[in-house]
Amino acid sequence: MIRTGTTLNIVRIGCDITYSSLKTIGERLINAFNGIIAGYELAHHDSPFIESIDAQLLTMILQQEIGGHTLGITDADLMTGDKDEFYHTIFGGKNPKNDIAVVSTRKLAPKKITTSSDYELFLDRTIKVSLHEVGHNLGLTDHAAYRTAPDGTLCPMSRGEFNKFGTAGYVRAIIDGRGQMFCDECTNFLQQVYGVKFRTGKFVNGTWIRLEKRNNG
Ligand SMILES: [Zn+2]
Ligand SMILES: [Zn+2]
User: Fold this and answer.
1) What confidence tens digit (pLDDT) does each residue in 163-186 have?
2) CA-CA distances (angstroms) from residue 150 to 24, 69, 129, 130, 195?
């Protein structure tokens, strides 16, 4: 069980995402989980796996080497035992036996990263998949249907219907559609389990904008 005020280990696994991007990911996670995650530590793990690695094996390696509450980020494909082509590789996963989650950036990059906005998009997607997997670490479950947060974006725990879009379409429809605020159900769960009070608002250009509650699916 993760305690309120946990420090999250963010571990880069043999990939070339920059340390400053990892810091951005850490800051966004702290902000989104509103006090449940108090801080983060960055680490690097050298990996002999270049193209792909079994997702569960990677969580076991990280458990042994880092332990605690950990998010691993790799640019290798995360493989599962699933025969279905879509489920054979995953964007992220979480080992139910420990507090280790892993994210693969391999399918999140736009076709080519040439401009800073291409990189922003790539980083934004990595943050959204990280939010989802760390959400699982904290006990949140997937929404099979679309569930919106108070700001109108999809809750980070939205999973949608996988096979409808194919991989590239899924990234655009579901991952890009997610925001960085949780829906009421997820917020209530986190507030009750971790004893924190979420602020109903968001930062817009550095200013806190209060959002009124409204009912939506
Ligand atoms: Zn999930
Ligand atoms: Zn939710």
Assistant:
1) 677 888 889 989 999 998 999 999
2) 23, 28, 19, 20, 20
DSSP string, 104-121: E-TTTS-S---SHHHHHH
Of all ligands present, the nearest one to the C-alpha of 134 is 1
Cα-to-centroid distance, 115 and ligand 1 (Å) = 30
144 CA distance to ligand 1 centroid (A)? Answer: 9
- 43 CB contacts (<8 Å, ≥6 apart)? 9, 10, 11, 12, 66
- CA atoms in the 13 A half-sphere facing the CB of 34: 19
State the distance between the two ends of the chain, measured CA to CA, in whole angstroms: 29
**b/e burial code for range 149-179 (CB count within 10 A of at least 16 → b):** bbeebbbbbbbbeeeeeeeeebbebbbeebb
Average confidence (pLDDT) over 62-80:
94
Looking at the CA of 135, which ligand is closest?
1
Span 125-153, pLDDT tens digits: 999 999 999 999 999 999 988 899 988 99
Domains and CATH numbers, the chain: 6-210 (3.40.390.10)
Distance from the alpha carbon of residue 170 to the mean position of ligand 1, in angstroms:
14
Model-level pTM greater than 0.85? yes
